Amino acid sequence: MTSLNPPASPKVHDHDNQLYEQEIHFDQHPYWHLTLVRTAINSKQQTWFSNLHCHLASRYASPGGRLPSVWPTLVTRIMWEAYIPSFIPSFDSAQMYRNEKEVGSTVLEFLASKENTSSLKREDIHFTSKLASNSSYDAARKSIKQSVKQCGLGYIDLLLLHSPYGGKTARLASWKAVEDAIDEGEVKTGGVSNFGVKHLRELLASKPRILPAVNQIEVHPFNIRTEITNFCREHDIVVEAYAPLVRALRMKHPTISSLSDKYSCTPAQLLVRWSLQHGYVPLPKSVTKDRIVQNGDISGFEIEAKDMEEMDGLDEYLVTDWDPVDAD
Prior knowledge:
Elements: E1 12-15, E2 18-21, H1 30-42, E3 51-53, E4 60-62, E5 65-66, E6 71-73, H2 77-82, E7 90-92, H3 100-111, E8 126-131, H4 137-151, E9 156-161, H5 168-183, E10 187-193, H6 197-205, E11 214-218, H7 226-234, E12 238-242, H8 254-262, H9 267-277, E13 281-283, H10 289-296, H11 305-312
């Protein structure tokens, strides 16, 4: 592999001597999504960049497709070291991230290596990717086939429409492409991301052959998105909550600090637990092995109902990333 000089590490917050990752925008640091995965797995050093998707609400999404209980994303040595055998390792990729090939090849490398002490096989891995844009049916089918080829894993476990952008005709045509990809065995489960209620209603009103299993949206106590989450619950759509740690922007909020002390947990654990108790599938990120394990270790406490209500009351519609839920 060619040796490249990566960009400087992103800034992180230091709270109670624990580091929380901030958002790294793909357009600013495309290097990471092209080469970091393999660089990290081959490195003997502990890399700072380890995104762990802890999905702590194991649910069956559709026939033949199961959502894992804990999802690491972006393959790194530190992730594998933190892997707990009872969890299902899963990798969150996307066409927009430009990392499908790197993630797929690194997964295959690991499965064939001596480091695979748990004897994991392809079927033990859950690979997610996302369609970058909604367009015509033919363009979407071609794009999905290219993603399957790029990752090299034989099929994609969960494919999401990354956003509702493109308009009604494009959204419905792209979903039809996802359905057919499922029929052809290229994809196991289909879902959407950043869809608002009007987009979900539109899709369901079209009477699709296959219903969306997932809606991946930004959800946390500072942006609770009640209308969207209630609609998803009513229609048995799993809510994947990205940015559940609020990109570390509210770790020192008085309510978060107070309740963390009350439950003898970290602010991150409190936020993950809040998401889990709402029935969401939270996707926390961490920069260290210990934090990866710690973020998933939230079974030792339960937030009381009055405290859940207090956390719900923190809603300020804080958007830490993009927000296409009202797109035409």
